[in-house]
Task: inverse folding
């Protein structure tokens, strides 16, 4: 039975990725000032999100989403960094939209759609950009990961859970993107609530296990944590992985108390 469920989940995952359309757009790069203002106002430096504040600013949030929806990135008019900044901001802003529309919820996973065990909140097609319909899986797995092949994106796209990398309280922009991605990776790996890295023991977020293959071109997960983590880890030290906690990121992971089994 478990094998059948796993197969169904994989089918749902790959069908979501493959549904991304080739949009013929002539749009020009947009400004992300609205999103920058919103996250500076309603997100702490540690990534704790004030969703009630976003609800109060729902009109401004919708104005930004409308701006995203009017301009699909394209290779003719957008640089690669402009495109990646757009898609990261879009993923994060539309994730906030999902939460705001269903708030209060305890976890993003409480938002259900479609067939149980196959369709998840990340399969809800509620995003329209120049006539193309997307879900969050389409954006992350159908566009961001395959098009940009940059392992640092895993610390920039936020899934609204306390074990996720922080939602940055600054919009991603092409002119600062490389520094922003470096900062997100370093911050995440050095956050003791999400990773435990010492010279004797390494326990990492499961993000680095789930997407381990995305780090191969970089030289592997160990090289990545040696470059971005608090200090180098010897090859003899075994890498283990921590449990992933899905409560909403409106609380600090360092203060979160996991329920006792």
Result:
């Amino acid at each position: 039975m478990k094998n059948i469920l796993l197969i169904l989940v994989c089918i749902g995952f790959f069908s979501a990725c493959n549904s991304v359309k080739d949009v013929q757009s002539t749009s020009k790069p947009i400004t992300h000032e609205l999103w920058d203002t919103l996250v500076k106002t309603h997100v702490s430096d540690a990534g704790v999100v004030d969703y009630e504040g976003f609800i109060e600013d729902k009109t401004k949030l919708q104005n930004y989403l409308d701006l995203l929806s009017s301009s699909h990135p394209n290779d003719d008019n957008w640089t690669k960094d402009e495109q990646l900044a757009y898609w990261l901001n879009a993923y994060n802003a539309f994730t906030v939209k999902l939460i705001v529309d269903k708030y209060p919820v305890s976890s993003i996973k409480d938002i259900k759609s479609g067939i149980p065990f196959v369709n998840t909140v990340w399969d809800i097609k509620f995003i329209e950009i120049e006539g193309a319909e997307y879900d969050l899986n389409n954006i992350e797995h159908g566009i961001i990961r395959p098009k940009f092949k940059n392992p640092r994106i895993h610390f920039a796209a936020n899934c609204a859970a306390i074990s996720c990398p922080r939602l940055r309280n600054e919009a991603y922009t092409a002119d600062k993107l490389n520094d922003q991605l470096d900062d997100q990776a370093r911050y995440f790996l050095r956050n003791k609530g999400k990773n435990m890295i010492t010279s004797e023991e390494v326990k990492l977020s499961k993000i680095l296990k789930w997407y381990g293959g995305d780090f191969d071109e970089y030289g592997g997960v160990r090289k990545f944590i040696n470059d971005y983590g608090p200090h180098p880890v010897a090859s003899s030290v075994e890498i283990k992985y921590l449990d992933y906690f899905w409560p909403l990121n409106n609380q600090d992971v360092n203060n979160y108390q996991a329920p006792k089994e």
Q: What stands out?
A: Residues 1-18 have pLDDT under 50 and may be disordered. The radius of gyration is 18 Å. The longest strand covers residues 127-129.
